[in-house]
Amino acid sequence: MNKRMIFIMLTMMLAVACTKKDEASFTNSLTFGTGVNASNFTLTGTSNSFQSGTTIYFRLESESDMAGSTVKISFINNSTGVETFYERPATQDYGHIMISNFNGLNAGTYTATGILVTGNKIVANALITIIPASL
Predict the structure, then answer these.
(1) How far is it, in rounded angstroms, from Cα 127 to Cα 19?
(2) What is the pTM of this model?
(3) Residue 16, pLDDT score
(4) Burial code of 15-32, b = ≥16 C-beta within 10 A, e = fewer?
(5) What is the full DSSP assignment across the chain?
(6) Per-residue pLDDT of the chain (135 residues; tens, 9 = 90+)
(7) Which residues does 5 contact at the CB level (< 8 Å), separation at least 6?
(8) Among 6, 40, 41, 48, which is 20 to 30 Å from 15 by CA?
(9) Within 10 A of 59 (CB to CB), how many other CB atoms are there?
(10) What's the CA gap between 54 and 110, in Å, rounded?
């Protein structure tokens, strides 16, 4: 199964798992990992340090309902100030969790910010380090 199909399946499962009545059980957080456990919407291989060239998964959890907003993950390189960002459209009009992946960050340390594009609401921040790939 390709990554796109896995992502679509995870997103569909998320739609069932995150109903509007669950609001009290969510917090604002941004975490990174090397994979996804689809049975409970958690990341596997969680870390804040990854080798360049690898696919990195993120999980943005919002205390308040995301209300169908596109999610933007902004990465500011702490040495150069250059911003790289990835946007992921919502697949439903409610929910508290977005799980997706990205790759392509250059080696460096970044301040990552999870943002709900609707309302430009900052949900959570985290540090992430990309280390050069071994030769």
Answers:
(1) 29
(2) 0.81
(3) 43
(4) eeebeeeeeeebebbbbb
(5) --HHHHHHHHHHHHHHH--GGGGGG---EEEEESEEETTTTEEES--SEEETTS-EEEEEE-SS--TT--EEEEEEETTT--EEEEEE--SSS--SEEEEEE--PPSEEEEEEEEETTTTEEEEEEEEEEEPPP-
(6) 565 555 555 554 444 444 445 445 999 999 999 999 989 889 999 999 999 999 999 999 999 999 999 999 999 999 999 999 999 999 899 999 999 999 989 999 999 999 999 999 999 999 999 999 874
(7) none
(8) 48
(9) 19
(10) 16
Structure tokens at 60: 């943005």
55 residue type, one letter: T
**Cβ neighbourhood burial of 68 (10 Å; 0-12, 13-18, 19+):** middle
Tell me which residue has tokens 């990552």: 112
Extract the tokens encoding 32: 């990174």
Tokens 């080798």, residue located: 51
